[in-house]
Design brief:
With 337 residues, this protein is mainly α. The protein is 56% helix and 7% strand. It has two domains: 215 residues, HUPs (Rossmann fold); 84 residues, Tyrosyl-Transfer RNA Synthetase (Orthogonal Bundle), CATH 1.10.240.10. It contains 15 helices and five strands. The longest helix has 30 residues. The structure holds tryptophan and iron/sulfur cluster.
């Protein structure tokens, strides 16, 4: 099938630095599936990172590199998807500006993530113009490539909804040049951190793709298990009370998993041994990722080249879109009167 007939997918990630297993199973596994089926654009949202990290912008370039190494190491494939950095495509800034002219402030103030994030990140002053406009920039990212589908987590749904409203408004005011993008929500496996909370860099509970085998073993050893089971002979409830068991479900072969459930419930399996076995399965799983990571880290030229090629491809599309945008914007239409 010709490339043009494939639907287009676009998604972005803020450069938060090293990625963990939560990113891998929550986002990247999904991107890997999509890159085989759709024409995909995946990008690093470095300007978005600046909306909250404007006091430490110097950290961002390093984080971009770390993150893209992780993308490539897990199998995001630059031969299949266009991988690029937002700030390499200045057209995003122009489209963001133009969209800002037609976006009512009330839509942005209503955005639930606006207030939530301000409260969560109290130590930073987020009463900025740029932070309020976060979803406008995101809308520009999405429609620049005329994306049909936007794979995101639930937390990003309000932003995709705002993108749809802004896009409709643009199409109505000028000319219907943009498809209305749709969010694509995918089922993601539960991936708690060692303390049972959601895996998150800021909680210090994550297993990173860049961790050493020993760090992985240590972290898995400290996973919370069934706390109502102080002695090995007490019957356990892996499905409902053991945090580590969420990882067993992902990394143990089905047959062994069934045995573990049985033995744990019968009080015949100790948590220390059980987690040791889990750790070895996770280490086994990560070996190819580590190998690829080490190779990429030793040849920084590769990542640079991938992003340069990606920027060229993205730029072609962005230039085309902006030509069209300027042309409909500065021309009188039937609706203008
Ligand atoms: N806001 C997204 C996040 O924090 C990142 C992002 C920026 C994005 N632009 C996008 C995601 C466009 C999808 C499409 O996760
Ligand atoms: Fe969890 Fe394994 Fe302990 Fe059962 S034996 S509670 S599955 S760690």
């Amino acid at each position: 099938m010709a490339a043009q007939t494939k639907k287009r997918v676009l998604s972005g990630m803020r450069p938060s630095g090293k990625l963990h297993l939560g990113h891998l199973h929550g986002v990247l596994d999904n991107w890997k599936r999509l890159q085989d089926e759709y024409e995909c654009f995946f990008f690093v949202a470095d300007w978005h990172a600046l909306t909250t990290n404007y006091e430490r912008p110097y950290e961002i370039p390093e984080n971009i590199e770390e993150m893209v190494i992780d993308w490539l190491a897990v199998g995001i494939d630059p031969e299949k998807a266009v991988l690029f950095v937002q700030s390499d495509i200045k057209e995003h800034a122009e489209l963001h500006l133009l969209l800002s002219m037609i976006t009512p402030v009330s839509w942005l103030e209503r955005n639930p993530t606006y207030k939530e994030q301000q409260q969560q990140l109290k130590e930073r002053d987020l009463a900025t113009y740029g932070f309020l406009g976060y979803p406008v920039l995101q809308a520009a990212d999405i429609i620049m490539y005329k994306a049909n589908k936007v794979p995101v987590g639930v937390d990003q749904l309000p932003h995709v909804e705002l993108t749809r409203e802004i896009t409709r408004r643009f199409n109505y005011l000028y000319n219907p040049v943009f498809p209305i993008p749709e969010a694509m929500l995918t089922e993601v496996p539960k991936m708690p951190g060692i303390d049972g909370r959601k895996m998150s860099k800021s909680y210090g509970n994550s297993i990173f793709l860049s961790d050493s085998p020993d760090a992985v073993r240590k972290k898995i050893a400290s996973y919370v298990t069934d706390v109502e089971r102080p002695r090995r002979s007490d019957p356990g409830d892996p499905e409902n009370r053991c945090v580590a068991f969420n990882l067993h479900k992902l990394y143990m072969p089905d047959e062994r998993l069934a045995e573990i459930v049985k033995e744990c419930k019968a009080g015949r399996l100790g948590c220390v041994a059980c987690k040791r076995e889990l750790a070895e399965a996770v280490v086994e799983f990560l070996i190819p990722v580590w190998q690829k990571r080490a190779r990429l880290a030793s040849e920084p030229e590769t990542v640079r080249q991938v992003l340069e090629d990606g920027a060229k491809r993205a730029k072609q599309e962005a230039v085309k879109t902006m030509d069209e945008v300027r042309s409909v914007l500065w021309t009188r239409h039937a609706k203008s009167d």
